Amino acid sequence: MDDEQWRVQVDRRTCIGSGLCTAIAEGHFTLDEGRSRPTAEVIAPEDAVLDAAEFCPVEAILVRAAGTRTVLAPQP
Ligand code: SF4
User: Fold this and answer.
1) Cβ atoms of residues 36 and 52 within 8 Å
2) In the chain, which residues have pLDDT < 50?
3) With a threshold of 0.85, does the pTM exceed it?
């Protein structure tokens, strides 16, 4: 079901290429031309991806419920 999956986005204009997300959520992000992108846009829930969104220094990562689009991270 869609509601059980998450949608991961990286704003590549905001990302500063720190690589933190690739370390925190290994396998979920990759650096491409100095900017991060998710390795998959829709994923099974994985707490490390929430952590990556919370710890991104510029809040470039957005994690939402795939079905409802409720924002899961970063928390406001
Ligand atoms: S943690 Fe944020 S700024 Fe750093 S590479 Fe990932 S998305 Fe970009």
Assistant:
1) no
2) 2
3) yes
Domain boundaries defined on the chain: 2-73
State whether CATH 3.30.390.10 applies to domain 2-73: no
Residue ranges lining ligand 1, Cβ < 6 Å? 10, 15-21, 29, 36, 56-58, 60-61
d(C-alpha 13, C-alpha 46), whole Å: 25
**Contact yes or no for 51/22 (Cβ under 8 A):** no
Pocket test for ligand 1, best of 18, 26, 37 (most atoms within 8 A of CB): 18
